[in-house]
Design a protein that fits this description.
This protein is an alpha/beta fold. The protein has one domain. Helix content is 44%, strand content 10%. Strands 2-5-9-8-3 form a five-stranded mixed β-sheet, covered by helices on one side. A three-stranded mixed β-sheet has the order 4-7-6, with no helix packed on it. Strands 1-10 form a two-stranded antiparallel sheet. About 14% of the residues have low confidence.
Length: 296
């Protein structure tokens, strides 16, 4: 995956709170799915809803960068090609540009959601979380939360091949949850999304995978505001393989087998490796969010 070297990055869409925690809205304690996933593998890769309540406290790590550093270091696409920090900014910019234009094309209005990059621990409107919970989206404050160490763990703990596009898939999946929030899907599901292969929880996650694929389909043709040029200039077949591999690595069956030695479909919350690949590939192939109805 390559960015246009000369394109400008917008760091205002990424909040960097590493090393200083985030003392915001008090934790909401609602229990449920997050407890199941953290207990199972110490990972929550999906939607951190206010009805699920993150309660896993974590201490911030020493600061390695600041928001001002991020703005100074991440100016252009060339920076995104060279740095993970700046790549996150670039992907967030690209994803939100696409969804803003797609909502407008469909007669709607997209509202930006910041990505909060943290280390160690963070407090959100959905509760407090440590890095162990992985990337998540919080509808309570409409923000994506990401500790960048997850990208290393995606390879070392979950066996994915990694790579820049695997990272982009993770971010785009979380913004898929933001799209679900804006379109009312989360409200229609209600507070109990359940467990199991046919549960609404699984359907929610698979739809977010499909939405990530829809963005990827259009990434090389979505013009950035004020330039008329796409921010991402190249997504190769190897990139796509890395994305599909990451989707499989965080499938419920792969995670359960890797960490518990047994597969229990009745407790699934995110879908199998094959399902996650299937729906990401479908979005990538079709490029149409209307083809992502996992609830039918």
């Amino acid at each position: 995956m390559q960015f246009d070297d000369k394109a400008d990055l917008d760091t205002s869409q990424v909040q960097d709170v590493r090393g200083r925690g985030r003392l915001g809205t008090p934790a909401v304690k609602a229990g449920g799915l997050i407890g199941l996933i953290v207990a199972l593998v110490g990972l929550f890769f999906g939607v951190g809803t206010d009805r699920l309540g993150l309660t896993d406290e974590g201490e911030p790590e020493p600061a390695t960068t600041t928001a001002a550093d991020l703005a100074r270091q991440c100016r252009t696409g060339a920076d995104a090609n060279a740095s993970t920090d700046c790549r996150v900014v670039g992907v967030v910019n690209s994803v939100q540009s696409f969804w803003s234009q797609e909502f407008r094309r469909r007669g709607g209005t997209y509202r930006d959601a910041d990505t909060v990059v943290y280390s160690g621990g963070v407090r959100t409107a959905c509760g407090s979380a440590s890095s162990a919970v992985g990337p998540f989206y919080c509808p309570g404050d409409n923000q994506v939360y990401l500790d960048l160490t997850f990208f290393d763990e995606l390879q070392s703990r979950f066996g994915a091949s990694g790579g820049p596009f695997a990272q982009a898939y993770v971010i785009a999946h979380e913004y898929g949850h933001h799209v679900q929030y804006l379109t009312g899907v989360m409200d229609r599901i209600g507070p109990d999304s359940g467990q199991g292969t046919a549960s609404n929880s699984v359907r929610l996650e698979l739809q977010a995978d499909c939405y990530a694929g829809v963005w990827a389909h259009h990434a090389q043709s979505t013009p950035q505001p004020g330039t008329g040029r796409p921010l991402i200039t190249s997504i190769t077949a190897e990139d796509v393989r890395d994305g599909l591999d990451a989707a499989a690595a965080v499938g419920d069956d792969r995670i359960q087998e890797r960490f518990t030695g047994r597969i229990t479909p009745e407790t699934w919350t995110h879908g199998s490796a094959a399902q996650r690949q299937q729906w990401f590939a479908r979005g990538l192939r079709e490029g149409d969010m209307g083809m992502c109805d996992t609830f039918r």
